[in-house]
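Incident log, support desk, overnight shift.

02:14 A customer reports that sequence design results differ from what the structure should imply. Their input is reproduced verbatim below. On-call engineer (initials T.W.) acknowledged and began investigating.
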């Protein structure tokens, strides 16, 4: 009961030697909330708040249990008064019940919740949210942009709902949300006001009190959604599968686990960045969100959301709050505790003169006071000045150097990257100017593509469609030529005893590369660029004898893959025949065939031989690959680097397994087909019944097919061509691209959103992109 809870809380706070203000700062809970809880006023405490307080107090497990029990208890003789007939104070509406779903779906939800909690705690650590304590982000009700209270409170027709008290601080956010019967909340704030950190805190608090089989809060960066082309549900499912490939596994009924989780209400979407949706799409996005009946949590900058509401309507049944600015008292409680003491044993820090100037109406600190109203700028100022011995925050008061608030913001943004990269790291690998250039390139590339998601499979820069096709074709051409030059030709010379002549080998490699690369380039243009835009990371693994994975409709998929493989093998047979004709036509050792009919007959024999060799082999290999593919684990991709590593491993397993099989099968198949047809039609144009020739053909076909497949049809191959090789050659990125991205993430320049990176804030991305373009 509330009285007993207040006594236990007050006793624990006093034993810890904390004031109410000190406990509020440590727990991230409002002082007013703690005062209310200790005096027994207001409603009973919520579980999320109790958990934060218990963590901050460091009490024993038994004391924690007593505190939670007191929070849930009621007086036996406590009267329960019926509300007035025309008014409902805070109607209690249970969370939407979930339909009965298979146990494996519930297990997937529980596993997903564990992964997300681990990832978000890591994000908070890297953002230093609790170092030394969370900034006191507060909010107020934005009633003009909210729906009717009757809709928010979900009261019956004819009943009037009273406004809810939704004010609070960062530690109250989950409790505030649970007190909204519609379970719809919009959090507004200007750039850098703390919206993203609030979403982290909300998700973690919701996960802390989640029971098995409960709803899973998932943060989605909504700026990547195009509501005019993709329904909201489809976008949610696709994003879940991108960030958690294991959710692409089929669930009972034929749908994917991701789709079932969304459809059954297991996912609570936390939509961060409504303002980042492309210009002109806010109205369509709001209309789409208005059609939803389920819960959601949405963040946006104030102006963009206000314009959307003005043009359409408020978000149905959604309460709206607006983040407020930080005050001087908030800065005085936070900044000195992040800095070193000026003198040993003293309490003064380098921030004291700055804080005194901020309180003095006569001091020239108006610009700085304006800048330090948002958590973003306070965090940058803390990093630049509290974490550095060489910088004095008093310089921020220099109006000659910083005549405007914008000049101060640009200074903090510009100094942030050098500060985090020069923070005494003896393992520093890169020059600071190079780091600026590389980060600027990434920021500029994101700006050009109008996105904030740094996806490794789309990091090739703002290339046009035909530029990508040309690069893929050229890469396939080069790899094929390299195989001819350094594998086939030397082995052929050694096995046959013929001299190795570079002019002939050079012509053979270039001609073969051209004939192989052009068809693959055309296929890439049609199947990838025109249809999908870019290749997505694979969501499967290759496992031998794995019977545990559920794979419905496997026989049908095997049949379709086998047919596709046979068709591809027939096309490959035609291409290989053309290679032979083309190479022989350009060879210095050309043997002229005067009889055109005889020439056509030989070409037909070649096509038939290679169709018999390639068709069944390619079909069988694709069918076998389908049989060995199993869904990825939920733990496959917990970070962008993990997703890249998983894709690399899958591609290499496929190549390592099937390249030798393809080489042997084509070698034996071509020998058998050549022997069978030679007795009927005579010898082919360039293939004879010889184990040596067949072995060389099989080896070459296996290697060339493997390289062409990786480059043309895998996301990892695209990463190698467009990013891993091309960008370092152009000096746009370092050779150790993944190590650089991970370093930027650890230093707080980048953040992680599912399986992609993003810049810490859109303002930082814009600043770096602007600086990069200024250098061009």
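02:41 Re-run completed on a clean worker. Output:
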């Amino acid at each position: 009961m509330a009285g007993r809870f207040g006594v236990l809380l007050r006793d624990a706070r006093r034993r810890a030697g904390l004031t109410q203000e000190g406990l509020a700062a440590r727990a991230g809970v409002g002082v007013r909330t703690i005062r209310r809880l200790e005096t027994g006023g207001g409603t009973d405490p919520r579980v999320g708040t109790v958990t934060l307080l218990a963590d901050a107090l460091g009490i024993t497990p038994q004391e924690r249990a007593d505190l939670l029990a007191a929070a849930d208890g009621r007086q036996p003789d406590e009267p329960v008064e019926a509300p007035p007939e025309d008014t409902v104070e805070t109607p209690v509406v249970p969370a939407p019940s979930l339909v009965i779903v298979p146990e494996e779906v519930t297990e997937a939800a529980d596993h997903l919740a564990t992964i997300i909690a681990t990832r978000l705690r890591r994000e908070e650590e890297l953002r230093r949210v609790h170092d030394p304590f969370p900034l006191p982000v507060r909010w107020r009700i934005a009633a003009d942009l909210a729906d009717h209270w009757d809709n928010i409170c979900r009261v019956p027709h004819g009943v009037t709902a009273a406004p809810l008290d939704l004010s609070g601080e960062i530690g109250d956010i989950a409790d505030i949300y649970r007190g909204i019967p519609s379970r719809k909340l919009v959090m507004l704030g200007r750039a850098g006001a703390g919206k993203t950190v609030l979403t982290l805190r909300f998700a973690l608090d919701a996960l802390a009190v989640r029971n098995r089989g409960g709803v899973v809060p998932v943060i989605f960066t909504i700026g990547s959604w195009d509501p005019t082309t993709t329904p909201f549900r489809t976008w949610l499912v696709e994003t879940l599968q991108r960030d958690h490939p294991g959710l692409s596994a089929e669930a009972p009924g034929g749908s994917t686990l991701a789709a079932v989780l969304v459809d059954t209400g297991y996912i609570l979407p936390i939509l961060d960045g409504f303002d980042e949706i492309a210009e002109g799409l806010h109205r369509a996005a709001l209309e789409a969100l208005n059609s939803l009946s389920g819960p959601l949590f949405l963040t946006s900058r104030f102006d963009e959301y206000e314009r959307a509401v003005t043009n359409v309507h408020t978000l149905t049944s959604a309460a709206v709050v607006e983040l407020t600015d930080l005050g001087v008292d908030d800065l005085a409680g936070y900044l000195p505790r992040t800095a070193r003491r000026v003198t040993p044993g003293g309490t003064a820090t380098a921030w004291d003169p700055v804080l005194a100037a901020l309180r003095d109406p006569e001091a020239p600190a108006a610009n700085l006071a304006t800048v330090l109203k948002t958590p973003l700028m306070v965090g940058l100022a803390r990093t630049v000045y509290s974490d550095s011995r060489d910088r004095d925050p008093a310089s921020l008061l220099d109006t000659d150097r910083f005549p405007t608030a914008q000049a101060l913001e640009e200074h903090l943004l510009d100094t942030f990257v050098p500060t985090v990269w020069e923070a005494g790291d003896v393992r520093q690998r890169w020059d600071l100017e190079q780091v600026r250039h590389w980060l600027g390139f990434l920021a500029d590339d994101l700006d050009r593509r109008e996105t904030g998601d740094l996806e490794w499979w789309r990091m090739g820069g703002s290339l046009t469609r035909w530029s990508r096709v040309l690069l893929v074709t050229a890469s396939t051409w080069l790899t094929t030529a390299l195989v001819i030059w350094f594998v086939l030709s030397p082995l052929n010379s050694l096995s046959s005893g013929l001299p190795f002549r570079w002019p002939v080998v050079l012509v053979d490699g270039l001609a073969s590369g051209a004939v192989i690369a052009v068809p693959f380039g055309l296929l890439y243009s049609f199947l990838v660029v025109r249809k999908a835009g870019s290749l997505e990371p694979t969501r499967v693994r290759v496992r031998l004898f794995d019977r545990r994975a559920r794979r419905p409709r496997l026989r049908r998929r095997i049949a379709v893959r086998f047919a596709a493989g046979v068709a591809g093998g027939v096309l490959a047979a035609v291409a290989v025949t053309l290679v032979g004709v083309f190479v022989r036509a350009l060879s210095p050792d050309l043997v002229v065939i005067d009889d055109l009919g005889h020439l056509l007959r030989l070409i037909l024999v070649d096509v038939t031989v290679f169709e018999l060799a390639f068709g069944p082999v390619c079909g069988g290999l694709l069918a076998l690959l389908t049989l060995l593919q199993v869904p990825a684990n939920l733990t496959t991709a917990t970070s962008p680097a993990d997703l890249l590593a998983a894709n690399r491993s899958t591609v290499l397993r496929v190549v390592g397994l099937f390249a030798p099989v393809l080489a042997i099968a084509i070698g034996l198949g071509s020998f058998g087909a050549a022997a069978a047809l030679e007795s009927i039609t005579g010898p082919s144009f360039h293939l004879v019944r010889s184990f040596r020739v067949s072995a060389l053909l099989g080896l070459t076909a296996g290697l060339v097919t493997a390289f062409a497949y990786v480059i043309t049809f895998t996301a990892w191959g695209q990463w190698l061509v467009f990013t891993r090789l091309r960008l370092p050659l152009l000096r746009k990125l370092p050779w150790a691209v993944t190590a650089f991205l991970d370093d930027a993430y650890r230093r707080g320049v980048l953040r992680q959103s599912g399986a992609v990176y993003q810049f810490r804030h859109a303002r930082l991305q814009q600043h770096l992109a602007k600086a990069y373009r200024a250098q061009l």
